[in-house]
Structure formats: C-alpha cells, structure tokens
C-alpha cells in the first residue's frame, strides 16, 4: 500500500509500504522566538523495520499582536500571576486549535488522524545542571474541540520524570533520519531556533544531543530593544551586517559557565534573555552601538557552533531552524564550523523551517503506536519514555495495536 487512505485510489510508486493504514499527523509548536505557530502535516507508514514520512506541507500563522505581547510580558525575567498563566493557557490553546483546524482543512483535506502539540514553552526549570520541570502552555482540550481530533501534548515531562533534560527531543528525529548507520559517521544535526541544539554520535556510536546556547534568543532581544519593540528579529541579519563585533563584550559572553557544562544539558530564555545581556553590559561598563550588539551576539552563536563541531570532530553539519534565514549568522557558521561542511536539512527531504513541526508529528505518531519517543543517551534519562498525554477528540479514543519494536530508521518520501 502507498501513502493513501482506504477511500483513495492506491498509489503506483516504486516504494512499498506495510499493510497498516497510513496516518496523517499534524505536528505543532511555537518556538522561543514567539513569532508564530507552525503546523506541519505528515503522513506516516511502516515499511518493515523502517518508518516512512511524507511531508504534506507547513501552515504557519503569526501570533496576533495582543496575544504575543501578553505572552512576552509573562516570560522570564518578568514576574507573572496564576491568573495570567490561566488566561494564556486558554488563549494559546484556542489559537493553536484554530491553526490546527486550518492545517487539517488545507493540508490534510480534513482527514488528519491526530494532532501532536508541543505548545509554547513558558518555563524550563533547570537547577544544578538538572532539569526539574518544564511548562508548555496551550491547553490540548481546546485543540481537540476545534479539530475533533485526539491530541498528544506535554511531550517533555515524562523524560524529565525519568531523570532526563526533556530536551533536545530533536535527537529522536536526527537519530532516525540523519545519523543512521555508517552514513551518519562524522555528521551532526544543528537546529538554530531561539536556542541552538546539536545532535551527534560519540566515539562509541551513541547519540549525544544538547543545547549549545543561544541562537536567535539574544539576537531577537537586541533587535527588539534597539527598535523599541518594532522589530521582532534581525531580519536578514541587517543589523549584524552593519555592525562590528565588540571583543570585550564577546569575551564576557563566552565566559558563561553554562558552556562548560558537560552534556546532557538544556537551557532556554530563563537564562538567555534581554536582562541577561543588560547585566553583562553593566559589567562591561559601556554600551556598544545597537548594530555592534547585534553583530556580537550573532558572532557568539557562530563561535559556539564552531566549538561544538571541533569538539565532536564533525565533517558535516546539517542545519535547520529559523536561524538559516539570517545570512550573516550562516556565513559565520560556515566559516567557524570548517572543516565540517554545512548543508541544509532540505537535502534530506525536510524544509528547514518545518523540521521541528515534523519532529512533533513524529513524536505524536510514536506515542499513539505505543513507542518511546526519547533517546536516553541524549537527554540523560534512565530509560526511554513513552511521551506525552492523550486528550480524546470528538469520539472515543481508539488507538492502534501497540508496535513491539521501534523503527530502525526514518525515510522521507517525496
């Protein structure tokens, strides 16, 4: 059987699939940049020990200005109240629900089977190098009401409950798609979101993944402050291109203790936010020009990536995430990652902007089929975990018979 539903005519391509009915899954998230909600539709089918993924498209909707401002006002280091958190959980859930419904109608022809929603991270609690808890808002019941579909949510907590960091979950997709067998030797997978994370294989062949440090988080903070909030990001790297790296500030940035912690480790805007940068500027005793600030924090991310490539002896770096749209950042990443060759994730069949949304579609699919979605060597957990909580849709929750073995690899089918 091809990637078809029972009511559709069978496909005639050369790839053969198992007799299990393919599933259409909507994977959703909003990243630390707080710019939009992404909803990717993926079709999955088992092919013996392999799992096949056919990307069916990405639907992105920017946050309404009022909702984004309300969200930004509650994030660290700002104080908040339970009332604000409650309202945000509802309003985010309602917005995620509308986006999911439109993705189902526009990309899945109204035939999606499942939604997997990461939601919006508002706090990732790390103390003494260990993740203690994590909170993503966007109540799943609102998504289920808007779509009539079952929803997998709260995808990080179970891994933390088993002693893991709950991040980066991208290691699951990276291990199955990019780092399989000898083909993955010397290759690393880098995602440049608000935070930069990397997945590699160690000398023994095990999967190692961790948050490197800030990517867009500090760049966005500089752009927002320099523009009085009018700019959400350094579009096209324009500010960094006009600016000059400040060596004194860069040295202070690189002295951050987090960078010397061994993996597994995770971080977020709880550490890397606008006030973090303001504190460093007070220690510096001066404030460089806005464009110089943008150039310096952009250089910071590239330096961190380059150091990770050298530490792991990489020969190839597969890059995804919103940061790939910043040409200044990417030019510096290419220069500092050398001799590792930087390639886009599109070469492996997934759009750079949609990779994380497809990741959560994959995790939701694995959960629905009774399969663990975490990689303990990457997160530090004691054991693999079946991730997330399930919220029923319009009808009774009926799950497929659990699979007994995890997929060996993931293959993307056009």
TrEMBL record:
Keyword Nucleotide-binding: yes or no? Answer: yes
- Name the Gene Ontology biological process terms: 1,6-anhydro-N-acetyl-beta-muramic acid catabolic process; amino sugar metabolic process; peptidoglycan turnover
**Coiled-coil zones:** none
Identify the pathway: Cell wall biogenesis; peptidoglycan recycling; Amino-sugar metabolism; 1,6-anhydro-N-acetylmuramate degradation
Q: What are the protein's GO molecular function terms?
A: ATP binding; kinase activity; phosphotransferase activity, alcohol group as acceptor
EC assignment: 2.7.1.170
- Tell me the Gene3D superfamilies matching this sequence: 3.30.420.40
Keywords, in A-Z order = ATP-binding, Carbohydrate metabolism, Kinase, Nucleotide-binding, Transferase
EC top class, in one word?
transferase
Q: Does the keyword Disulfide bond apply?
A: no
Which segment of the chain is annotated as a signal peptide? none
The residues listed in the UniProt record as binding ATP, with positions renumbered to this chain, are 31-38
The reaction(s) this protein catalyses: 1,6-anhydro-N-acetyl-beta-muramate + ATP + H2O = N-acetyl-D-muramate 6-phosphate + ADP + H(+)
Q: Which domain of life is it from?
A: Bacteria
| Family affiliation | Belongs to the anhydro-N-acetylmuramic acid kinase family.
Q: Check the record and name the HAMAP family matching this protein.
A: AnhMurNAc_kinase
Q: Function of this protein?
A: Catalyzes the specific phosphorylation of 1,6-anhydro-N-acetylmuramic acid (anhMurNAc) with the simultaneous cleavage of the 1,6-anhydro ring, generating MurNAc-6-P. Is required for the utilization of anhMurNAc either imported from the medium or derived from its own cell wall murein, and thus plays a role in cell wall recycling.
Please give the name of this protein: Anhydro-N-acetylmuramic acid kinase
This chain's source organism reads Streptomyces marincola
> Quick one: which gene encodes this?
anmK
């Amino acid at each position: 059987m091809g990637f078809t539903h029972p009511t559709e005519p069978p496909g005639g391509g050369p790839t053969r699939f198992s007799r299990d009915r393919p599933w259409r899954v909507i994977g959703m998230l909003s990243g630390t940049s707080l710019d939009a909600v992404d909803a990717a539709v993926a079709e999955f089918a088992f092919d013996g020990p392999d799992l096949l993924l056919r990307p069916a498209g990405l639907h992105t909707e920017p946050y309404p200005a009022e909702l984004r401002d309300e969200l930004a006002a509650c994030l660290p280091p700002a104080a908040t109240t339970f009332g604000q958190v409650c309202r945000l959980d509802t309003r985010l859930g309602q917005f995620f629900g509308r986006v999911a419904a439109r993705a189902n109608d526009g990309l899945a022809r109204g035939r999606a089977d499942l939604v997997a929603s990461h939601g919006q991270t508002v706090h990732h609690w790390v103390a003494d190098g260990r993740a203690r808890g994590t909170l993503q808002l966007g109540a799943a019941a609102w998504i289920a009401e808007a779509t009539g579909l079952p929803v997998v949510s709260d995808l990080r907590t179970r891994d933390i409950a088993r002693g893991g960091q709950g991040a980066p979950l991208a290691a699951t997709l990276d291990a199955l798609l990019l780092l399989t067998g000898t083909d993955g030797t010397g290759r690393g997978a880098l995602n440049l979101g608000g935070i930069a994370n990397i997945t590699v294989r160690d000398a023994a062949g095990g999967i190692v993944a961790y948050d490197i440090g800030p990517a867009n988080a500090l760049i966005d903070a500089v752009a927002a402050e320099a523009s009085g909030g009018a700019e959400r990001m350094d579009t096209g790297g324009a500010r960094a291109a006009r600016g000059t790296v400040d060596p004194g500030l860069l040295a202070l940035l690189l002295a951050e203790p987090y960078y010397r912690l061994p993996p597994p480790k995770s971080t977020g805007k709880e550490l890397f936010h606008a006030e973090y940068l303001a504190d460093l500027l007070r220690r510096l005793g001066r404030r460089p020009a806005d464009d110089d600030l943008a150039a310096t924090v952009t250089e910071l991310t590239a330096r961190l990536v380059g150091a990770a490539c050298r530490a792991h002896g990489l020969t190839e770096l597969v890059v995804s995430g919103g940061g790939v749209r910043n040409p200044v950042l990417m030019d510096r990443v290419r220069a500092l990652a050398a001799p590792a060759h930087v390639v886009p994730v599109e070469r492996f069949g997934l759009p750079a902007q949609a990779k994380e949304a497809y990741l959560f579609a994959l995790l939701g699919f694995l959960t629905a089929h009774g399969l663990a979605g975490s990689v303990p060597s990457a997160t530090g957990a004691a054991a693999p975990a079946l991730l997330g909580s399930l919220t029923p849709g319009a009808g009774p929750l009926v799950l497929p018979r659990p699979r007994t073995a995890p997929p060996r690899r993931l293959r993307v089918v056009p």
